[in-house]
Amino acid sequence: TDRSKLNAMKFLNMLCMYSIISKPMLLPLLCCRMVKLTLQYGFCDDSIVGFATAGYSVFLFTEDIRLASHIGKVSESLVEESPNKHALRSRLCNELVGTLK
After folding, report:
1. One pLDDT digit (tens) per residue for the chain, 101 residues
2. CB-hemisphere CA count at 13 Å for 62?
3. What does pTM read for this prediction?
């Protein structure tokens, strides 16, 4: 595992969390970068959060409910396969459900 890439994913995840609230227009760019890093270097827990956030940004900016739902289902299946599934669910709730206020 490349430590610098894992740290980059953690940093991008934090940026996504804050951009949802302050600068939502950055969200698709950040999510795309997370997905690109995942495809190049492999999965980590932040990858799954990145996919889920990408689904949210698809819904937020395109209102394509089917595509957003599909991405969400893929994210959920990845969460189920993860050994840290309870921690991932908690992170997703904190990051995404908090935006519904």
Report:
1. 688 988 998 999 889 888 888 888 999 999 999 999 999 998 888 888 888 888 888 988 998 899 998 988 888 888 888 887 777 777 777 666 666 55
2. 13
3. 0.79
Give backbone dihedrals phi and psi of 31, rounded to 5 degrees, phi first: -65, -40
Q: Which residues, in sequence order, are CB contacts of 17 under 8 Å at separation 6+? A: 95
Q: How far apart are CA 100 and CA 89, in angstroms?
A: 16
Which residue's structure tokens are 């997703």? 92
Residue listed under structure tokens 């935006």: 99
Instruction: Say if CB 19 and CB 30 are below 8 A apart.
Output: yes
| Cα dihedral 76/79/81/82 (nearest 10) | 170
d(CA 92, CA 98): 9
